[in-house]
Amino acid sequence: MTDVAAAPGMNWSENLTYAAAELRQPSTMAELQEVVADAAKVKALGTRHSFTDVADSPGGVLVSTAALDVGGVEVDHAAGTASVPGAWSYAAVAEALEAEGVALHNMGSLPHISVAGGTATGTHGSGNGNRVLSAAIRGLELVTADGSLLHVDADDPRLPAMAVGLGAFGVITRVTLQVEPSYWVQQHLYKDASWADVLASLDEVFASAYAVNLHADFSSANTRTIWQKERLATDAGGELVLPDVAEERWGASRLDVVDLDPGRVTQITEPGRWLHRLPHFVPGGTPSVGGDELQSEWFVDRADAVAAIEALRRMGDRIDPHLHGTEIRTMAADDLWLSPAYGRDCLSLGFTWKKHPAEVTALLAPIEEALAPFAPTVHWGKLFAMGRPELSERLPRLDDFLALAESMDPTGTFRNAFMDRLAAG
């Protein structure tokens, strides 16, 4: 038995000290069920990458399922699905899927995060035709408040609520994901496109590849980089068909040789398998700026993309002194109740902040005010200021979500301070 009581410690960026009384690490399903059934308050803890207290359990128990013996990745080739351990990282799951000749439709920038935690908070990749990572969920296995093991399949009307579930329904042990045949991806990078050129052609920029990521700050005349991640076709003989790639686009030059650390960042120009190109960072390397950061992310309708970016550029002189950089991406609409892309194709505006907590906190409400005409939604694991009134307007199933969570957890075992704020009128 590896069930150990310990101090929960801090999250990845060390901006949050968990207020839970203890951390438990069960190794068997029976141990997990006992921990959950016995706890007045409990919450699952993943890879600690959330910048909010969404995964905390003040005064209660945090449960890590990292040591839980629930088996490995099981692929159903006929159904086009794979059942995976919720605690496994996307990197570990992707390696196992690739060994079976199948792939996910997309991955986030960081493959280090767990499948259960990443999907529960609305994490996403990029691509006009790609939905958030949670949209691939076709089933969940979780331990509910009384210690029971619940299986929710694709036909269960609760799944669209539980797929981005904020940990409100139980401790997820396995996730069933839709998969497809493995594929190749080639990355290209364009540098120093002007903001004027990018905004004049924004739809074209984000339609230019399977997944596109724009990195910038807001007050500069130029953007930093545009990453294109293109799925590659094969010919009748199975050889890769490499597309012609323009040397210049949107006033930016294509870079074929870049000083990218292969131990940290996925490589450009050279084709690679989907799992080695869709993320920005390699699993064994340090992601982002190593945790010396804070993060926020807002989502607006793609039709409002240019206007929303222009609104932020007008306050760029206030934002940029506290910003490592912004990452702008797109995603397709879905029907998941708390997805940031619920019911609309979205543009995401991701902020990687310097660790200036007071200054960043003071900027959250002004940024949301600037974006208010575009009805922004949020990433649940990143810093934001808005509460239930605004979120209820923009996520019409929020009240239904809260009601379902209460009906499935009437004693409030999985309810925490984050959920209390979300439920407050």
Characterization of the model:
There is one protein chain. It is globular, with a radius of gyration of 21 Å. It is 22% helix and 24% strand. The protein has a domain at 74-182: Uridine Diphospho-n-acetylenolpyruvylglucosamine Reductase, domain 3 (2-Layer Sandwich), CATH 3.30.465.10. The N and C termini lie far apart (43 Å). Strands 11, 12, 13, 14, 15, 16, 17, 18, 19, 20 and 21 form an eleven-stranded antiparallel β-sheet that branches. A five-stranded antiparallel β-sheet has the order 4-5-9-7-8. The protein has a three-stranded parallel β-sheet with strand order 1-3-2, with helices on one face. It has twelve helices and 21 strands. With 425 residues, the protein is α+β, with helices and mostly antiparallel strands.
- Uncertain residue segments: none
β-sheet strand percentage: 15-25%
Q: Output the number of helix runs.
A: 12
Helicity, as a percent range: 10-25%
CATH architecture of the domain at 74-182: 2-Layer Sandwich
Major beta sheet summary: 11 strands, antiparallel
CATH topology of the domain at 74-182: Uridine Diphospho-n-acetylenolpyruvylglucosamine Reductase, domain 3
Radius of gyration: 21 Å
Task: Tell how many strands the DSSP assignment holds.
Answer: 21
